Amino acid sequence: MSTASSMVNEEKMGGSDEQITRVLFCGQQFVDSYNYTKEYLSNYPHIQVDDVPLSDVPNVIGNYHMCIPRMMRIDSDIISRAKQMKLILQFGVGLEGVDADAATKHGIKVARIPADGTGNAASCAEMAIYLMLGLLRKQKEMEISIKLKKLGEPAGGTLFGKTVLILGLGNIGQELAKRLRPFDVKILATKRSWTSLQKNGSSAQNDCVADLVDEKGSHDDIYKYAGMADIVVCCLNMNRETAGIINHSFMQSMKKGAYLVNVARGGLLDYDAVAQSLKSGHLGGLGIDVAWTEPFDPSDPILQFPNVLITPHVAGVTEYSYKSMAKVVGDTALQLHKGSTTATGIQYVN
C-alpha cells in the first residue's frame, strides 16, 4: 500500500523527462476503490496512485494533481494547501463533504461519477431490496431460530401486494423501481422535478420511467404518501433541503408497522425521530446501509432492536460497480495527464 513517505516531488521514470501525474485517495476505507484503480493503471507508470491516512492528507495534498475524497471532508483549509490540484473527483456521487465554492476560488474542478452508467445505482437498488426482504422475513429472528433449533418460525412477510414509496426517483430510485415490478407491488415515487426528467431523456425512456411508477408526487406529497406505504425507501440526494427530512412529522405520518429503508445518506434520517419510533413500536423495522456517524457504533441503542438491520455502507460496493468506477477514475487521470481540461465520463459541479 502506497504511503506519503514513498513520494518525491520531481519523479522521473527510466530517464524519461515525462512528469508524473499523482492521484490521491483520502483515507484507507473503501479499500477496493483504491485497489481497482491501482490495478487499472498498473500499465501506466506515469500515473502514481496513493492512498494515505486521513490525518496525513493535509500535509501531503500539495503534492497531488487529482484527489479522491471518499469519506473525507475536503474543506477550504485543505483546498488551500492543494497547490497543484486540478480535479477533486468523488468515487461515486456524494459530494456533500467537498467545499466546491472554495475549490472554484482556487481554480480546482469538482466532479462526481454518475451512478447510472457504472452499475453503482443498480447495486444500491439491489441492496435496498436485500434490506426490504431481510426486514420482511425477520432476519434477526431467523438467526435466533437457527441457534435454538426451531423450525418453521418466524412467520415472515412478503413483498407481494405491498405498497412501496421511493423517496427520490433519481438513478437509484429508477433502478429500484425496475427491480420491484416483478414483485407485484404498488409503487409511489416522489421527485423534485418530473419535467426535468422529461427534458433530459428521450420520449421512449420517459415512457418507461412513467410505466414504473403507479403514482408520481412532489416533495409536498411525502407525508400523504408516507401514510399509504408499507415500505419507505430513501434514495434522496443529501443537501440542505433534504437533511433530516425523515423527521418526527414524517415518522408519525407513516403507517403503524411500516418499514423504513435508507441506502442514500445517514443524515437524511433524524436519529431521535427514528429511535423514538422504534421504541414506541410505530416503526415496524429499519434497514440502513448508511448511518448518522460512520463507522457506526456497534453498541448504539438502535442496533439492539430485533427489527433493525444495518450493513456497512456497501450498497454500491460490488465488483462490477467498483471496477467500472475505477476505470472512470483511471481514464480521467490519463486525460488529465495529457492536459485535458474537461474529462469525459464524469459530471462537473463547478
UniProtKB/TrEMBL annotation:
It comes from the Eukaryota. Residues 35-343 form the D-isomer specific 2-hydroxyacid dehydrogenase catalytic domain. This is Uncharacterized protein. Signal peptide: none annotated. Belongs to the D-isomer specific 2-hydroxyacid dehydrogenase family. Pfam families: 2-Hacid_dh, 2-Hacid_dh_C. InterPro entries: D-isomer_2_OHA_DH_cat_dom, D-isomer_DH_CS, D-isomer_DH_NAD-bd, NAD(P)-bd_dom_sf. The keyword Disulfide bond does not apply. Keywords: Oxidoreductase. Coiled coil: none annotated. CDD domains: 2-Hacid_dh_11. Residues 130-315 form the D-isomer specific 2-hydroxyacid dehydrogenase NAD-binding domain. GO terms for molecular function: NAD binding; phosphoglycerate dehydrogenase activity.
